[in-house]
Design brief:
By secondary structure, the protein is an alpha+beta fold. It has one helix and four strands; from the N terminus they run ββαββ. The protein has one helix at about 50-70, and strands at about 15, 25, 80-85, 90.
Length: about 100
Amino acid sequence: MGNKKSSFIEIKKILCDVDGCGYEDTNVDLDNYKTFVNRKCPKCGSILLTEDAFKKFKSIQTSFDRLEELGHLPEKGIENIVKVNNDGRLTNIDGKEVIIKL
């Protein structure tokens, strides 16, 4: 899979998980996402993206890329916002836990 661009996964920003912090960086994309691993939030000092959260994201990305290669994904992607939390949970925009079954 290498550095192939995923057509189903897009990263638009990274958010700090700490309640009340509110920090977000919109200068994030698929190419530079890994650079945020273990980077501290400039506002509160918390880690923005843990290694475990990044590994979970990469696993999801690999699964979607593989399904796309096999032709098992629709031509047009389904738009949904999913957040990979530093505690390893996936949540939607409302904070409800998301489970992805492939």
